[in-house]
Amino acid sequence: MYSVDLNSDLGESFGVYRLGNDEQILDIVTSANIACGFHAGDPSTMKKTVRMALDKGTAIGAHPGLPDRCGFGRREMAITPQEAFDMVIYQIGALAAFVKAEGGRMQHVKPHGALYNMAAVGRALSEAIAEAVYRIDPELILFGLAGSELIKAGEKLGLRTASEVFADRTYQQDGTLTPRSREDAFIHDPEQAAAQVIRMVKEGKVRSRQGTDVPLTAQTICIHGDGPRALQLSRRIRQLLISAGISIQPPGEG
């Protein structure tokens, strides 16, 4: 029996600005990565998103990013491992307070955007992030790109990890995601996206843009909730996964 988690990055509105389809996406995914105020989100949005996730029975995770609102945390910054450690501690702590106040429990941590991509290939940075997660709660699950330095760093510390793959993104032959700046970075067709994730879950492979098969482990699938067809894509992927005999559940229950 195959099983996989579906996760989405949520709580990324700020003040009067609204982003994404959080309430509807929470009916589809099993894990919510909630922004912690650096790249997006604010205290009221954090509380509201935590409450919605708890009401819908969706597992909650912190989604720490770089302090770059204008760039939405997607621009690289020259930070030290110590700075990364401090940023992650700060942001997890902020969200954890809301989760506790609302009577819930945090399941995981998934870095956002450029911090995620930098940690995927940078050993020192990934080790600092994993250490921050471990120091706060060694029972937390660390989400990271399948095959990345972040997954290796978490495993080295003894953390539970969840190897993440992407439904709507294309891959390079080294296992990294195609940069967002390229036109071929995204998959817009739900059938194509579902076929990609089904193969990743069942066969442990993804076809790169260079035409080679890249081996990987798929334990959690990221579905972006802020695109123009995000809800349609998300619903169809979930439907096709279940039709393919793949159960949907949080990694903490697997």
State Rg.
17 Å
CATH-level-2 architecture: Alpha-Beta Barrel
Poorly predicted regions? none
Oligomer: single chain
SSE run: EHEHEHEHHEHEHEEEHE
Number of domains: 1
CATH superfamily: Glycoside hydrolase/deacetylase
Report the strand count.
10
The overall pLDDT average reads: 94
CATH class: Alpha Beta
Q: What is the overall shape?
A: globular
Folded structure, characterized:
It holds the Pfam family LamB_YcsF. Belongs to the LamB/PxpA family. Helix 3 (81-101) runs parallel beside helix 5, helix 5 packs across helix 6 (149-157) and helix 7 crosses helix 8. Helices cover 39% and strands 19% of the residues. It contains eight helices and ten strands. The longest helix is centred in the middle third of the chain and has 21 residues, at 81-101. With 254 residues, the protein is of the alpha/beta class. The mean pLDDT is 94. The protein starts with a strand and ends in a 6-residue tail after the last strand. It has one domain (2-248): Alpha-Beta Barrel (TIM Barrel). The strands form two sheets. Strands 1-2-3-4-5-6-9 form a seven-stranded parallel barrel, surrounded by five helices. A two-stranded antiparallel ribbon has the order 7-8.
Secondary-structure map with pairings?
Elements: E1 2-10, H1 22-25, E2 31-35, H2 43-56, E3 59-63, H3 81-101, E4 106-109, H4 113-121, H5 123-136, E5 141-145, H6 149-157, E6 160-166, H7 190-203, E7 205-207, E8 213-215, E9 220-222, H8 230-243, E10 246-248
Parallel strand pairs: 1-2, 1-9, 1-10, 2-3, 3-4, 4-5, 5-6, 6-9
Antiparallel strand pairs: 7-8
